[in-house]
Amino acid sequence: MTPQEQWIDFCSKNEQDICLYDQPFWLDAVCGGREHWNVFLAEERGKIIAALPYHIKQKLGIRYITMPQLTQHNGIWLKQTESEKVEKRIHHENNTYKLLIDQIEQSGVHMYQQCFSPEVTNWQPFYWQGYKQKTLYTFYIDCPCDLTAAEQNFRSSTRTHLRKAQQACTVSEFDDIELFHKINSMTYARQHLQNPVSLPLLKRLYQACKDHQAVKMLMAKDQSGAVCNVALYVYDATTVYALMSGGDPAKRSLNFQTVLTYEGIKFACETCRRLDFEGSMVQGIANSIIGFGAEMHPYFMIKKVLTKTPLISLYLLHKLYR
What we know:
Helix content is 39%, strand content 27%.
């Protein structure tokens, strides 16, 4: 089997252990087909011990690995060593990561840029091979399995906005992805921007997640029955991800998005999952998320220009570090 076929087979047998963003069905949807993604594998005695799924793109003859849309992170999946000794665990990580790095270097791509899961806290083997790193942040509400306990960590003003909004809106699940896209696009239109997520991509992803029972889509209506805000949550065995949201700019003062965020937290608590807000480096957004009692978690963007061709190298360096 090819590495991709091996990974598909492996995930089908170990789905509960694999992050949503590394799942073949997710990659099929966000990358636009299996010809646009692949995976580097490390094996031991014929068994997969590590995997690095990746999105491959080509533009102007330049082939590069980069993040697909709507995907906060992907890779590295690593089978943990059974040893309790720190030295052996780190040695295992370093050696295994080096096997993956060698495959990146030998893949023939001109550039590599990928965001790793917050679970990956060791990027030293990449540093030793000349890769650069940028720290980003997401925010978690770790599973208390008790909604009341989670609410106690809310900022007082967040609680006030929530209670007022709850009295003025009706929340329900819905299945109209075109309506979701329309409301979501209003958020960008307010800023005179085009929605970066196309409707065909969103339809593919929603259907794939629905087929795998990994999506929850909510709307909030005002007392007149008008849809004011929407939210799209996706999830795997351990985590609920706040993937997308949006609202009617004319109804922003109603704070209905606060209610939809609360419903996401409630769903995570009820199903014993953590909620990943898919944090933001934008100060205002980060401050709003912290109001729900979420804690910061760093994750790494790893990047390197691999080509030796001078002009292409200059172009890619500008693209990576601008």
